[in-house]
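Bit of a strange request maybe. I'm writing a small parser for structure token strings and I need a real example to test against, not something I typed by hand. Could someone generate the tokens for this chain?
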Amino acid sequence: MNNSVGNTARLLWAGLRALLVLTVVCGVLYPLAVTGVAQGVFPHQANGSEITANGKVVGSELIGQRYDLPLKKGQQTAAPDLKWFQPRPSNGLGTNSVNTQYKLILSGATNRSGDNKELISWVTAAKAAVVKDNSVPGHPVSPSDVPADAVTSSGSGLDPAISPAYAQLQVRRVAERNHLAVARVEKLVAQHTDGRILGFVGEPRVNVLQLNIALKQLANGA
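Reply from user aminoacidic:
Good idea to test on real output. This should exercise your parser:
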């Protein structure tokens, strides 16, 4: 009986020691080491890839934002503010009523098939809106010129970037709305176009938030 109690006590003590050691190693030392390495080697990425303007954090390189006009009485969906470059559509899993800069409360795709009637309706309406919004006097936009990312959301629904083709499609409208020369806005897009990662991974892209910050500086004569 005494041997049985002693063995049980030893096993419990061994289990407790293992729990304490693993808690310290996995719950304290390892997180501190990973955090320290991340802050030392990749501080920008470790802190959320924040983007600042005029000394204030205005967003993240990793999360898209909307550029809409204030909701008018009776409106359910805000109209886009056409003085800014517009991001991809953000159809996804749900809406966020707390921080309206970010439409989605969950990251995820629409999960609708290519022949889904609702998806087809979204794409058709989005294409018509892109054509209408970006056609300026003397330079109408053809539906065939609208790139796919202008009318479809990304897999996450939070994509911060658009294709150079979609950015270029918006140049004349943005230039007109901000009273800028088209060539200056085209140069701005070129300056904010990132190539493929390592030269072969992914596609060229334009971060919309960074582009609009630069646009605001250009429009203000900075």
